[in-house]
Amino acid sequence: MLFESIRQSLNHLADAHLLRERRVVQSPCGTQAVINGKTFLSFCSNDYLGLANNPALTEAVCRAVRQWGAGSGGSHVVGGHTGLHAQLEETLATFVGSERALCFNTGYMANLGIVPTLVRRGDTVFADRLNHASLIDATLLSRAANKRYRHGDTAHLAELLTQTKSGKKLILTDAVFSMDGDIADIPQLFALAERHDAWLVVDDAHGFGVLGKNGRGTLSHSGMPLHPRIIYMATLGKAAGVSGAFVAANALVTEWLRQRARTYIFTTADSPLVVAALLCNLQWLAQGDHLRTHLLSLAAQLHAGLSRTRWQTKMSPTAIQPVIIGSNEDVLRVSDALLGRGFFVPAIRPPTVPEGSARLRISLSAAHTAHQVDLLVNALEELQ
């Protein structure tokens, strides 16, 4: 009975063209991916600045392994917080202009730590309908009431905030939405947080390193300082090219998270090798305005090229460039056809995106060339 239930559920996914497959990549992260011995031009990586395979990173990791070994040996609060970890938190806090920063192993774990630590049963979370799965799960874990506002609709959010009379309030949003590449109206969200005495938690997984002065992220891009009521989270496995995440906030909030966030307290700290790699790449990220300029030019080039086709696109000032196909079956067909032409572009389907909006999610990197983008545009024109 138990196994038959799982088998039937898998069959339903297959019938709806929703089964997910893993492709084994046999090459380092870059603009080219080797799969089953064949080389493809890859447009599926979150390595937005092309730093994942930075040669300087290799040297930094080699130095770190000789000094620190491979493992941290424990959680941050029980012996695993090395001098490298302390240096990384200080570097990140200075970079984004916060009093303190706290490092987590992943962005998912950071979000699961933040929300339940700040609100609980009797409080209310106000969440954008297109928030990342980690923010949805964090809200469920907190047991706070969950009120979702229409995507990007701050008037709807204001209405929900006004209707809520008791408990603490927390506004929860992606900064850059991962499937459309659009940017949240951070100044307006902050104004509502001020008016209703609410926390504002911003997940900047896809904006950190790409947007803002020196890549400081979406708050910088929006002209917003890191105010004490803002809790800022960014991941380090995308534009920073390695892995992990951090939360930046004022000293009081950061200390509360350090004391109570379960996903921080009850897990082994990141390997010193990861931390050394991040310290190296953050220097390149801060000095990478030329990379960000090139990335933006590639996005404009792609959008201009696809405007000549029937494909529906959404222009974004980020690395994320969606091409809306529609049905699950059609998007798989187009993705497979691109693979046959030597392009690795993933098909994104529900529940990651709403029903009927299955898409190709083209992820650009500063490591891509204009010629490579032209090749992709030409292939998509042929598939119309």
Structure explained in plain terms:
Strands 3-9-8-7-6-4-5 form a seven-stranded mixed beta sheet, sandwiched between helices. Helix content is 43%, strand content 17%. A hairpin with a 2-residue loop joins strand 1 (32-35) and strand 2. It has 15 helices and 14 strands. The chain is α/β, with parallel strands linked by helices and 384 residues long. The chain starts with a helix and ends with a helix.
Brief account:
The protein has 384 residues and is an alpha/beta fold. The chain has helices spanning 2-15, 55-68, 76-80, 83-96, 107-118, 133-142, 154-163, 186-195, 218-221, 251-260, 262-265, 272-286, 289-306, 328-340, 370-382; strands spanning 32-35, 38-42, 100-104, 124-128, 145-149, 169-174, 198-203, 230-235, 245-249, 312-313, 320-326, 343-344, 347-348, 358-363.
Write the layout of secondary structure elements.
Elements: H1 2-15, E1 32-35, E2 38-42, H2 55-68, H3 76-80, H4 83-96, E3 100-104, H5 107-118, E4 124-128, H6 133-142, E5 145-149, H7 154-163, E6 169-174, H8 186-195, E7 198-203, H9 218-221, E8 230-235, E9 245-249, H10 251-260, H11 262-265, H12 272-286, H13 289-306, E10 312-313, E11 320-326, H14 328-340, E12 343-344, E13 347-348, E14 358-363, H15 370-382
Parallel strand pairs: 2-12, 4-5, 4-6, 6-7, 7-8
Antiparallel strand pairs: 1-2, 3-9, 8-9, 10-11, 11-14, 13-14
Helix pairs in contact: 2-12, 4-12, 5-6, 13-15
